[in-house]
Design goal:
472 residues, binds protoporphyrin IX containing FE, 4-stranded mixed sheet, 3-stranded antiparallel sheet
């Protein structure tokens, strides 16, 4: 009752005794529409309960600005804890001084001068992706998401750790299987009330499977880190760092972390580095794969937009050379296409914070301790009061969007925004230019309505189906 009294100013979504609204939010293919419905009905914010747990749902731009800009409400909600065994105190889920330290150390690794080097690293895995897609030519329907997910995992392995796991080439890889299983575990634990209780979960066979996967993931990361540490020590003696095929090795995030020093001038610990490298693996690959897949779906259904992107590619790119960082920066229309696709299909459809003490929002309006604050980027992006014809794919609306802050949040905003967003944009552009130069993207035959599913990352329950035709 205390919470109800304090939240007098927030509309309550009616629910059942004890269960609250658990049944309404149990189906991952219905969550987004429910959230959308409620934030529209209650105009920007409301709250509900899941088995006594109070959650506030937010889409109001002013409220989002207050929350995301806050330098005190920085703690992630308890849902993120299902990642703890794998990522431990990694930047995505940690809070307080631990998070602050990680964010400060890792930020320089995303400097544009570093990102510029990655463009060359993107080349080989992208050529392999194009080969994989070529095998799918002229099929009536190809679910591109799994192929793109293998591709982004290859890219993240190479840029985060500097290793080539050949995810796209080898059908069976224990590391990849473990990453996949971990991503599924996170979702199951977030949505299945039985699995979300630690005590019950720890007695289940799922827990033992998770522990086996975590052991494997940690041991691969640790081996790579140790190997690279030794190589870097030998480089000090002027030994050139080369890959197995003789090409010069590019800097990976890992190299930067190995070279970094903490505030006392000491090298970072093995555990610290492993946690951040593992965090990139989780936060970077599925999000980017989902975003690229949805852009392809939008392009398949909007041939006019696809042609405009092709024209831009012809204008910006020189004949037959490798794509450069500068050219990627110049692809402004493609950037609007990606942004518009991420408006309709934000890879992280909602994210949340937890109040660790009572906080004052506005005069007389407090938020009690222990409330989960959910920001629904999906609902914000489809608000008809903000976007005209919100369900329509119109890339040109991004010409003048700057005027409406906190109404476009695919990468979140404020101090805990996505640290990888520039990297992600660069990779998405690179991948799409290569795909569009090789293939015409068409709707599947027969055309397929996507059933969106809010897993930890936005997915299409029935796949992202398109058709590919060769341009060459
Ligand atoms: C299209 C691709 C991506 C999207 C849509 C995306 C979206 C997001 C969002 C919404 C958050 C905030 C999550 C929250 O508050 O819970 C976030 C955080 C984060 N992202 Fe991304 N992300 C993408 C790609 C990447 C990549 C490629 C990397 C790394 C290489 C990355 C690393 C991170 C990290 C480390 C955080 C935590 C930052 C912090 O808490 O300080 N992301 N991302």
């Amino acid at each position: 009752r205390n919470i109800k009294e304090k939240l007098w100013w927030v509309p309550l979504i009616p629910g059942y005794p004890i269960l609250g609204n658990a049944l309404e939010f149990a189906d991952s293919t219905k969550i987004l529409e429910r959230m959308n419905h409620y934030v529209l009905k209650y105009q920007g914010y409301c709250y509900f309960t899941l088995l006594f747990r109070p959650l506030m749902l937010i889409s109001d731009a002013k409220f989002c600005e207050w929350l995301l800009s806050s330098t005190t409400i920085l703690t992630k909600s308890k849902d993120y804890q299902s990642l703890y065994n794998w990522l431990e105190g990694g930047m995505l889920i940690s809070s307080g001084p631990e998070w602050r330290k990680a964010r400060k150390i890792v930020t320089p690794a995303f400097h544009f001068a570093i990102l510029e080097q990655f463009v060359e690293v993107f080349e080989k895995p992208t050529a392999i992706l194009v080969d994989c897609l070529r095998k799918q030519l002229d099929k009536d329907a190809v679910n591109v998401h799994p192929l793109i997910a293998n591709y982004t995992l290859d890219i993240i392995c190479q840029t985060a750790m500097g290793v080539d796991l050949k995810v796209q080439e080898e059908s069976q890889n224990d590391y990849v299987a473990a990453v996949d299983a971990m991503c599924k575990t996170v979702v199951e634990r977030a949505f299945n009330p039985l699995k979300s209780f630690d005590i019950i979960y720890r007695l289940s066979p799922d827990y033992y499977r998770e522990m086996r996967n975590v052991k494997l993931l940690h041991s691969v990361s640790n081996t790579v880190i140790q190997k690279r540490r030794k190589e870097m020590e030998s480089e000090k003696n002027n030994v050139e760092s080369v890959n197995e095929d003789g090409t010069k090795r590019k800097m990976a995030f890992l190299d930067l972390l190995l070279k970094s020093r903490d505030e006392h001038g000491q090298p970072l610990s093995q555990d610290f580095i492993r946690r951040e490298v593992d965090t990139f693996m989780f936060a970077g690959h599925d999000t980017t794969a989902s975003a690229i897949s949805f852009v392809l779906f939008c392009l398949a259904n909007h041939p006019d937009v696809q042609n405009q992107v092709l024209n831009e590619i012809k204008e910006v790119r020189g004949e037959g050379q490798k794509i450069t960082y500068k050219e990627l920066q110049e692809m402004k229309y493609l950037e609007m296409v990606i942004k518009e696709s991420m408006r309709l299909y934000p890879s992280v459809p909602f994210y949340s914070r937890q109040t660790t003490e009572e906080v004052l929002y506005e005069d007389g309006k407090v938020i009690p301790q222990g409330i989960t604050l959910i920001i629904s980027a999906y609902a914000i992006h489809r608000n008809p009061h903000v976007y005209e014809q919100p369900e329509k794919f119109i890339p040109s609306r991004f010409f003048d969007l700057e005027s409406k802050p906190f109404t476009y949040l695919p990468f979140s905003a404020g101090p805990r925004n996505c640290i990888g967003q520039k990297f992600a944009m660069l990779l998405m552009k690179f991948a799409l230019i290569n795909m569009l130069s090789n293939f015409e993207i068409l709707p599947s035959n027969p055309p397929c309505e996507m059933v969106l599913s809010a897993e930890s990352v936005l997915k299409a329950h029935n796949g992202v189906n398109i058709r590919l035709k060769s341009r060459t």
